[in-house]
Amino acid sequence: MLFTEDFLHYIWKFRLFERENLQTVDGEELEIFSAGLHNSDSGPDFHNAGIRIGETVWAGNVEVHLSASDWQKHGHTNDGAYDNVILHVVYRNDAQLFLPNGRKVPTLELQSRISEALYNKYHKLVFGNQSFIPCENGIATVDALTMQNWLTRVLVERMEKRSANVAAALALNKGDWEETFYQFLAANFGFKVNALPFELMAKSLPQLILAKNKNSPMQIEALIFGQAGFLEGEFKDDYPLKLQKEYEYLRKKYNLKPIESHLWKFMRLRPQNFPTIRLAQFAALIVQSNHLLSKILEIKEVKALRSLFTEIKVNDYWEDHYRFDVQSKPSSKNMGDGSVDILLLNAVALFLFSYGKQHQQQYYISRSLKLLENLPAEKNNIIADFVNLGVKIETAFESQALLELKNNYCNYKKCLQCGVGNKILKLA
């Protein structure tokens, strides 16, 4: 048989071996009360196991190896952490082992106790040549409850990892939640293509400066377009000329340095997504909502959260412009539902989760997950492939979880650590 030690861990953890007439290799009767807790750190593989050997009940650690001789190869003989091992579980018993006190290490050999059907399913799952995910031929058979429970777990894992980025930025901003949210929100206004220049612009323009000018939409717009590097050169229209004049004054007042305008990308973007339009929308949001994160923390209804973004109104100039000095057909420049969904997903839901985690308040974590349940699933190649396998995906809660599943479990064939993989194997 071809398998890794992880497979034996899995077999032991869920006791998926033949347990009738169970004995140690020395012929002593063996009964298992508890397999113990799987240990992912150094030391024996399972802690707090409970077993009976002969007439004696034992509580302690269990070590698992492919071969008994691996005990010596891994240096356990001279490691005190293994002196209280109560059972050595191996696939093949090829060596006799003794503890420092002279007691022989009790050993259970599983070579003849693993079903061929379970092994074949495991081998096909982990060593097969599936093009998308290892369980692509079985994932649609997994019951809804198992799938939902596992997706909830991996979604939380994803949010916790993303929250680490928030925590790092928060530390750089000296614990200022509003400033940190402002920077993350700005980056998400760039919608991947222009995320970097948007983030650089926000970091070059502290929210405190914007707050000092919150009563003047023209000054807010001048500061944002100016720091984005779009107010350099000569203009014909009155609006950019006014912005330019206002910015020159504010630039000197606050000793500001704009980012390079060449960082912004226009190519292969729909005009509605041009950075100039996104900057205009961002400016309108800043004008409308001071202390935005505080408002978001207070708002309980998803509809009200959405309205923060859908109700912003850009300067009238942009009704018939996508760029300065270039007139176009009149069209609405309000944020579309798809754009708002992305901001709610990548900024609002993330910060609700991060805030709850940092302050140990489950209320905000629950609100974050509820928000994801009320957002539509993203559309991308990975999600489309899951749908083609028969997986039902309707919400961002599900799509975000499946992205985490694919990228951090399926891609590394961690089927034995996956709730979906476990369920498929147990159906063997």
UniProtKB/TrEMBL annotation:
Top-level lineage group: Bacteria
InterPro entries linked to this entry: DUF2851
Protein name: DUF2851 family protein
Organism the protein comes from: Mucilaginibacter gossypii
Lineage of the species this protein comes from: Bacteria, Pseudomonadati, Bacteroidota, Sphingobacteriia, Sphingobacteriales
